[in-house]
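4.2 Preliminary Data

To establish feasibility before requesting continued support, the project team ran the inverse folding procedure on a target of 471 residues. The structure was first converted into the token representation described in Section 3, and no sequence information of any kind was made available to the design step. The complete token record follows.
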């Protein structure tokens, strides 16, 4: 199909889950595509062979050199803006897009009415919120999908044969950095905490990239009342005339907010006479699990759905139908009156703070790769809830030192081993510290790669160790 890309020389930066679809789509649109990739491992060679069979040129092991004649770069989201390839592109006046930007520009190319995007970002909770949103939209009878940073290609969604009424779109700060033209129907920034600062360069730059999600919003900019930084991003956004700021809160909502009243999720934003009226949406018990941060996710998802015109009944039905992914504050088992909960996905302090706030008396399993994080504020806030702590991983000393400063009365077990078998010992030590009514919580506040392939494997190891306790 003729397009603006026909005959254009486009460089795709990076293979993987975004680069391969981008290369295929651009090639199919008649572009002259060259893919550059830093690595040349077996996976990269396999992907390269697949693309070369289509007629795409692939250069492995050299992701820094700008191919001659390049008119556009489409980059994988994780490639840093400081990379020499992009420096060369800036000197040459070559624009750089991400795959999200490409997907945005390709909407409607086949003549179909483009599906609006309901967009979600934030430091934590993005995937859960997008999945909740998709569940609500489906409960309303809408054709939808959860796409984007969640692992489902946006390019496939906008160029594939399946038609959608609306898309629930998860966007990372990386993706937003490379998506200057994105204009969502409505969007939310769930929360902001320091993360990926090595990539963005500063907290200010990180927040600015998150805030791009609000630019050009048509209907609603949803923000977290408890996180003023998200409201500040709304205030700074250039939106369409009539776009509204909609807050969500775990407390009683004011006008133009969603919140919680006596165990009920309520809407005072998308109702007639919002100064006097409220609409019941669902019960707190309809949220799985009903931890405070997950209720906040549900309110954010409900806000976007209501902005799209979804009924209160569909919000309730969608939340009831939603099942969270593994390793996100997942109850594994009860053993001798003690609950064992896997929140291996809590890989930073902000996520772990929310996880710790969900339980009253905790034996905390924590540690791993700190990624430059500090733990004083986290430990100080959770100290009264801690029955004990079991520390694992390469940077566990940082957490041990924070516990010594802010919770010196809390017993600590420091496991001086980083093999994968350490998890079984950690669970056994946690059992020894726990009392009936306690929760043994794996919420590491750290990345997993010092001991495990990823947080999934870490959570699986925890669950297996718990099952062995109850055997």
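Position-by-position output of the design step:
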């Amino acid at each position: 199909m003729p397009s603006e890309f026909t005959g254009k020389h486009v460089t795709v930066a990076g293979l993987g889950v975004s680069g391969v679809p981008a290369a295929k789509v651009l090639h199919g649109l008649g572009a002259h595509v060259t893919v550059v990739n830093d690595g040349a491992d077996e996976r990269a060679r396999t992907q390269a062979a697949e693309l070369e069979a289509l007629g795409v040129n692939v250069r492995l092991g050299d992701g820094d050199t700008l191919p001659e004649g390049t008119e556009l770069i489409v980059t994988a989201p994780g490639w840093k803006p400081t990379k020499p390839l992009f420096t060369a592109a800036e000197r040459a006046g070559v624009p750089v897009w991400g795959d999200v930007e490409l997907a945005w520009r390709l909407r409607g190319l086949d003549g179909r009415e483009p599906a609006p995007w309901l967009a979600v970002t934030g430091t934590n909770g993005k995937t859960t919120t997008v999945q909740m949103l998709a569940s609500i939209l489906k409960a309303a009878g809408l054709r939808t999908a959860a796409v984007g940073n969640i692992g489902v290609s946006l390019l496939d969604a906008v160029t594939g044969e399946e038609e959608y009424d609306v898309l629930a779109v998860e966007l990372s700060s990386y993706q937003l950095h490379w998506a200057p033209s994105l204009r969502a129907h409505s969007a939310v920034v769930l929360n902001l905490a320091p993360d990926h600062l090595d990539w963005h360069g500063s907290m200010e730059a990180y927040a600015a990239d998150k805030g791009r999600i609000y630019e050009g919003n048509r209907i609603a900019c949803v923000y977290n009342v408890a996180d003023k930084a998200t409201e500040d991003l709304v205030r700074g956004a250039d939106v369409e005339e009539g776009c509204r700021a909609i807050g969500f809160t775990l407390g009683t909502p004011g006008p133009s907010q969603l919140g919680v009243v006596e165990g009920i999720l309520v809407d005072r934003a998308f109702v007639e006479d919002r100064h006097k009226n409220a609409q019941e949406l669902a019960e707190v018990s309809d949220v799985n699990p009903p931890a405070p941060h997950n209720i906040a996710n549900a309110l954010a998802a409900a806000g976007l759905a209501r902005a799209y015109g979804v009924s209160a009944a569909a919000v309730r039905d969608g939340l009831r139908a939603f099942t969270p992914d593994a390793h996100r504050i997942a109850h594994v088992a009860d053993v001798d009156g003690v609950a064992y909960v896997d929140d291996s996905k809590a890989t930073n302090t902000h996520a772990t703070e929310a996880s710790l706030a969900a339980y009253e008396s905790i034996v905390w399993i924590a540690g791993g790769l700190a990624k430059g994080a500090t733990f004083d504020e986290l430990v100080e806030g959770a100290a009264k809830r801690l029955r004990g702590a079991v520390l694992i991983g390469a940077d566990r000393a940082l957490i041990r030192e924070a516990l010594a400063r802010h919770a010196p009365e809390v017993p600590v077990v420091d496991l001086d081993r980083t093999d994968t078998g350490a998890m079984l010992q950690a669970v056994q030590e946690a059992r020894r510290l726990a009392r009936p009514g306690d929760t043994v919580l794996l919420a590491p506040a750290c990345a997993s790669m010092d001991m495990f392939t990823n947080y999934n494997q870490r959570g699986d190891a925890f669950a297996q160790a718990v099952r062995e306790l109850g055997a």
